[in-house]
Amino acid sequence: MDKVKTINKYTFFWSATFFGAIGLDRFERGQIGLGILKLITIGGCGLWALIDWIIAIKKVYGSAYKNDSEITFINGKYSK
Length: 80
What we know:
Shape: globular
Number of helices: 5
Number of strands: 3
Strand order of the largest sheet: 1-2-3
Strand content: 15-25%
Order of helices and strands: EHHHHHEE
Helix content: 55-70%
Radius of gyration: 12 Å
């Protein structure tokens, strides 16, 4: 069964910006295991957090969700 989760795109972007190093963005997506791993490693010493932040910018403000106010994740992955 597919796990579908919808999050406001601005909330998701700001949580990835300010709390990405402790894995909050992964917890919001429903990826609990990766969120815990990211929390333990402090965002992969910042590198993993930076990469997730860049992906969030590209997805949230790029063409994929440009006109939508919410992001939909299916099984923890961006739906578009």
